[in-house]
Write a structure and sequence with these properties.
Amidase, 2 domains, Amidase_dom, 17 strands, two-stranded antiparallel ribbon, about 575 residues, disordered N terminus, glutaminyl-tRNA synthase (glutamine-hydrolyzing) activity, alpha+beta, Amidase signature (AS) enzymes, globular
Length: about 575
């Protein structure tokens, strides 16, 4: 007699003569019960071992005959191409809190930078703000071609040690710079970004250049698509000089070309996948750069590299043409020299992207006209108190504050959301076994295999818990903003799930751990975060501008060329530098 069970999607194979016999019927029944027992063990992985064996047999039959064909049809329809650039989910997250003013406001009124003079030293030029450089260009003290050459030279000089650039867009840069100079010569000025060089995280598509996503699997791919954020910057006259490092598939700082280093301490890594934008802005290799965050990919590298940055309200900046991890978490934002520059860049790149269902016209007020003396700002136990004291001296009502919510496993909610969404965008990548080629096997490969085991019902329950978190944060937000640690993982997860904007604010420097010599100039950057409610980015910007108006922490320059006695870096820098290993 033949009695056999084969495969996960099992079929019972029984001889025709056996089916006609009593013994055969008993064998079939026995096999089904054995099969049900095997599946019951598997159901434990889903915390769903609640069914009788007869019900399990019924479930397996329905899944085989109905579910799997639907899975395969959907995969064929939308999941055979990686990256999530097409066919976005129609389930759209809106972080807006009801009951508050939702009136659209116009563009910001940028402050004038009168009396700016061109420095003699190119390094001094490299560390000028966007507004200062814009004034040099507008007053014709420098051309965009000259600026572009300065920043390309710096990128090529320091990239061998920082490992922060994927692709130089030199030909495009000089073409855009030439056009900017010609427009200005004809009397046409496009605004504060006219002729200003910048860099893009290499998950953002630009025609004619590779968009590698930091992964050796995709390092040769190109798109004809112009990402929406690139279009906005191009229309403003900005000059793209480089595609900057993203951690592989936007996870941490490891990519197919190496691992990006912190300019303040070159033995240390940047952490976070917006590694290139943070490192290059910190080191004066670009005046500003565009990065992205799903969960810490802007806040961590900005804090590590001592850069001012804003993670804006979810939906502020359109994401068409950008690799997607999670359509309800991904955000684009600028790394800059100052909060003023962040305000300028955000103003230019914000707006409704018609091809991004989650992007909106966020009703931001002008941060340059906010009266901070009318604000009440809370500070958490882990806030940098210098910021609290400075803002109090500027007339802000500063009060102790606590974040209170009952939702547990906030980090788990974020992981469920991020990992399942990411797997939907890289389903084919996993099914093809390409995850075995991934640069860091303890990162996406492990997380996405685990994500395969998250049932749809539990993903939805996680979103319901997220909704409860949003409600509790909204009800407990009794201040106009609050100050607290910007790299605390619980706050990173909470802030991203709720869609809160946050400013990363440099507040000082401390000595590094185990320095090579007592006289080393290497430092550890100290930062804090200024958090605001959704669509109140202007409040966080205004408070940061007020703090930076009387402090100079954001103006400090990392010691790439001057590490101190007994601690030197070759000139030009070399790649062979000892390293410690850091993880996000």
């Amino acid at each position: 007699m033949l009695c056999q069970i084969v495969g996960f999607r099992s079929r019972t194979i029984v001889s025709s003569s056996l089916l006609e016999s009593k013994n055969g019927s008993e064998c079939v029944k026995k096999m089904k019960m054995t099969e049900a027992s095997q599946y019951k063990a598997a159901f434990k992985l889903f915390d769903a071992d609640i069914f009788t064996e007869n019900k399990i047999v019924e479930i397996v039959k329905g899944a085989t005959e109905l579910n799997i064909p639907i899975f395969r049809a959907n995969w064929k329809a939308v999941a055979s191409v990686n990256g999530g650039l097409h066919d976005p989910s129609v389930l759209v997250f809106n972080p807006e809190w009801g009951g508050k003013e939702n009136k659209h406001h116009g563009k910001f009124e940028y402050p004038s930078e009168h009396g700016v003079k061109r420095p003699e030293n190119e390094e001094d030029i490299a560390y000028m703000t966007v507004l200062e450089l814009g004034q040099l260009i507008r007053s014709k003290q420098i051309t965009s071609m000259e600026l572009t050459e300065i920043f390309l030279k710096r990128l090529k000089r320091y990239n061998p040690v920082l490992e922060a650039v994927v692709t130089y867009t030199e030909e495009l840069a000089y073409k855009q710079a030439k056009k900017a100079d010609e427009l200005l010569a004809s009397g046409e000025y496009l605004g504060p970004l006219h002729g200003i060089p910048y860099g893009l995280k290499d998950i953002i598509a630009v025609p004619g250049y590779k968009t590698t996503w930091g992964s050796k699997t995709f390092k040769e791919q190109q798109f004809d698509t112009e990402a929406w954020v690139y279009k906005r910057l191009k229309a403003a006259g900005a000059v793209l000089v480089a595609k900057l490092v993203t951690g592989s598939l936007a996870y941490d700082d490891i990519w197919f070309g190496g691992r990006t280093r912190n300019p303040w301490n070159i033995e240390e890594f940047t952490t976070g996948s917006s590694a290139g934008p943070a490192a290059c802005t910190s080191a004066g290799l670009v005046p500003f750069a565009i990065g992205s965050e799903t969960a810490g990919s802007m806040t961590y590298p900005a804090a590590r590299c001592g850069v001012t940055a804003i993670r804006p309200t979810f939906g502020t900046v359109g994401r068409t043409g950008v690799m997607s991890i999670s359509e309800s978490l991904d955000k684009l934002g600028p790394f800059c020299r100052s909060a003023k520059d962040c305000a300028v860049i955000l103003d230019i790149i914000r707006g409704k992207d018609p091809d991004d269902l989650s992007s909106r016209e966020i009703p931001l007020k002008d941060p340059f006209s906010v009266d901070i003396t009318k604000l009440t700002v809370g500070y958490l136990d882990d806030a940098e108190m210098e910021v609290v004291h400075v803002l109090a001296s500027k007339g802000v009502n500063m009060v102790p504050y606590e974040l209170n919510y009952t939702v547990e496993r906030v980090q788990g909610i974020l992981n469920f959301t991020m990992d399942v969404d990411m797997l939907a965008h890289f389903d084919e990548w996993q099914r093809d076994g390409k995850d075995d080629e991934y640069e860091a096997q303890d990162q996406w490969p492990v997380e996405l295999r685990r994500a395969r085991m998250v049932p749809a019902v539990d993903y939805i329950q996680a979103q319901r818990a997220r909704g409860k978190l949003v409600k509790e944060i909204r009800e407990g937000f009794t201040v106009d903003a609050f100050i607290g640690n910007v790299t605390d993982w619980e706050k990173v997860c909470m802030g991203n799930l709720v869609g809160l904007p946050v400013m990363v604010v440099p507040t000082g420097l401390t000595n590094i751990w185990q320095p090579h010599s007592d006289d080393t100039n290497r430092r550890t950057s100290v930062t804090t975060g200024i958090y605001a409610p959704p669509s109140r980015d202007h409040i966080a910007l205004a408070l940061t501008m007020a703090y930076q108006s009387v402090t100079d922490h954001h103006k400090q320059r990392p010691p790439i060329d001057d590490l101190g006695p007994g601690d030197s870096i070759p000139n030009p820098p070399l790649v062979e530098i000892p390293a410690r290993r850091f993880y996000l």
